[in-house]
Amino acid sequence: MIELSESRIYEFEEFRLDAKSHRLFRRAEDELVPLTPKAVELLIYLVENAGRVLSKSELIDKVWDNSFVEEANLSQTIFVLRKTLGEDNKKPRFILTVPNRGYQFIATVKKIIPEDKILEESLLLDNSEQTPPDPKSKIQNLKSLWLAIPIIFLIAFGIYWFYPKSSPSTISEIKTIAVLPFEDLSEGQTEKYLGISLADALANKFGDLKKIIVRPTRSVLKYADSREDLSKIGRELQVDAVLDGHIQHIGERVRVSVQLVRTSDNATIWTGNFDDQFTNFFAVQDSISQKVVQALVVRMNEKELEKFNRHGTENAAAYQDYLRGRFYWNKRTGENLLKAITHFEKAIEKDPNFALAYAGLADSYTILAIYGAASPSESHPKARVAAEKALAIDGNLAEAYASLAFTQAFYDWNWKVAEESFKRAIELNPNYATAHQWYGEYLEVFKRFDEAHREYERALEIDPVSPMILSIIAGLYSVQGDYDKSIEKAKKILEVEPNFAWAYFWMGMAYEAKGQDAEASEMLAKTMELFGEPKECANEVREAFKKNGLKGWWTKRLEQIETRPHLKNFGGYFKALVQIRLGDKEGTLKSLEEAYTQRDYNLAFIQSQQLLEPIRQDPSYKDLLHRMGF
After folding, report:
1. What pLDDT score was predicted for residue 67?
2. Secondary structure (DSSP) of 3-19
3. Which of 42, 176, 314, 361 could disulfide-link 386, Cβ–Cβ 3.0 to 4.6 Å?
4. 461-511 pLDDT per residue, tens
């Protein structure tokens, strides 16, 4: 067997590096550039790992072969390399220092195979094929071949059976990616919004491609302040590849360094560096997205290409406000949603025809009441107006259709129209997890549980680490009476998000239904703490449980709801569920009527709530269902 020697000649900028002979040349003059042995070894390792951030410990281990050296040796060698390459520390072309992490080779590297090497190896192959075989060796080879066949078969079977089939072997097989928040190296940035905003903008762009599933920004935010091994992050997010990078805003310019890394083998598929005017942020975003799509060998038809290249506005200032809006929207708290609304409104002031800004406004108002920052009657009419305005400008925005559908269903109770809007949102973007999640909730309202499960599972396929989607699935199992499954799913949530309040809520509900009162008491008290209630309130219900069991727990809870200032806006629906536990049917019906007046989102699930069985035949209850359009 003739072994073809792999070329290790690389070109970057004005240099050519022959890694096999450890020599660096200036290409124009073919001039040998003098370097110390360790400097050239360090350069080779940097170049062969271009685009990847290399820690100081990794460089010392690889270049100094685990010898006892200090970081000063590395720093000095880096200094020598930069000086030799003519590097400008303020505007690095080759070696970027990544604070608190290490170094990254940022120049574009091209691997060269010399023509004479191709010819030489071709001749070697030709000659090997033309050499006449020895008859004795031929017989021996045949015997060896027959003996080897069972072994080859076993090896092939083992590879087929045990090798993880989810790992793509080729670039074109990559179907799921995560765009991590870009590390913001800009000086004077306290919120570091730029790196998260660029990642979100790119994720939304890729999300328009039906051939690729992109993890939502909210699921990758926890990696914004930590840069672990990229393949590990990819495995946690259950994706085939990860897009990672750095961004730096310097004066009037913005610089971005990007790498696309395959999860299965940590291979860098593509790297790129971009430098442009900050006001021309569109160009940077477009360049990155187009290069990634080319690297993934994704083909688009004319309609997909037009949608992919769309910005929604040509007003750079409006777009910056939009990005800031999305930055706060992804934080998902009442306070940050109000900030998001402010920035979306600023974007609309600068460009009244910016459909995406209206869609962002609709998204924010849609969930504002859920996060306690406004009443449904304050937020949902505004969500409807914003969504309709977005669709009047661009009738193909899946996000706007989903927000409109949510308002139509859970505020207007216009069920038939809402289902049409949900289906339209999913048709426009089958990879929009939120649309599947909300449509699943709609289906659950009508006890179409099998269909709801399908929508939730599809949402989970798109966003497998979303604690909210996982908690909704746990809730559905609870509603169906499968309490063990509900507890199992809730515990899965805590592996992703240890302090997610809804996980404890559904465990508490399931334990109560199973008659495990002590466990139910503690899970529900923990829920109160995680939703931000004073610790004294949680301790009060714990003490009440010790004295009078769950009846004492719920009696104390009702007292808190009716007397504590922080609970003055407590929803009528959940108050009704406390009262029905205590056998107060009249109070339950009164609270349900309050929930109707409030347009309480949770009231929509009234028909599947098993706790309400004692009042099903009451005329007031039946009248309430009729008024809700059931």
Report:
1. 57
2. PPPPP-EEEETTEEEET
3. 361
4. 999 999 999 999 999 999 999 999 999 999 999 988 999 999 999 999 999
Residue (of 175, 381, 207, 391) closest to 298 by Cα position: 175
Q: Residue 442 phi/psi, 5° resolution?
A: -60, -45
Cβ–Cβ under 8 Å, residues 548 and 555 = yes
Q: Please report the DSSP string for 132-180 in residue order.
A: PPPHHHHHHHHHHHHHHHHHHHHHHHHHHHHS-TTS-SSGGG--EEEEP
Joined together, the tokens standing for residue 115 give: 């023509």
Q: Could you tell me the sign of the dihedral formed by the alpha carbons of 300, 390, 361, 460, in that order?
A: negative
> Computed from CA positions of residues 541, 546, 552, 553, in that sequence, does the dihedral angle turn out positive or negative?
positive
C-alpha distance from residue 585 to each of 21, 202, 479, 581, 630 (Å): 87, 53, 21, 9, 21
What is the C-alpha to C-alpha distance for residues 433 and 439, in angstroms, rounded to an integer?
A: 10
CB 259 within 8 A of CB 245: yes
**DSSP per-residue letters across 517-553:** HHHHHHHHHHHHHHTT--HHHHHHHHHHHHHHHHHHH
Q: Is the dihedral of CA 430, 431, 432, 436 positive or negative?
A: positive
Neighbours of 562 (CB within 10 A): 12
Q: Is 126 helix (H, G, I), strand (E, B) or coil?
A: helix
Torsions phi, psi of 330, nearest 5?
-70, -15
Nearest to 401 by CA among 416, 384, 380, 422: 422
Domains of the chain and any CATH numbers = 9-112 (1.10.10.10), 174-310 (3.40.50.10610)
Q: Which residue has the tokens 């940050």?
A: 336
What is the per-residue pLDDT across 535-590, written as a single tens digit (0 to 9) for each? Answer: 999 999 999 999 999 999 999 999 999 999 999 888 899 999 999 999 999 999 99
CA–CA dist 485, 473 (Å, integer): 10
The predicted-structure confidence for 319-349, as pLDDT tens digits, reads as follows 889 989 988 988 888 899 999 999 999 999 9
Q: In 523-559, which positions are buried (b, 16+ CB within 10 angstroms) versus exposed (e)? A: bbbbbbbeeebeeebbebbbebbeeeebebbbebbbe
Residue with tokens 């928040």: 181
Classify residue 86 as left (phi > 0), alpha (psi -120 to 50) or beta.
left
Determine contact, residues 28/20, Cβ cutoff 8 Å: no
Q: Tally Cβ neighbours within 10 Å of residue 339.
A: 17
- The residues, any chain, with a CB within 8 Å of residue 109's CB and separated by 6 or more, are 10, 11, 12, 47, 50, 271
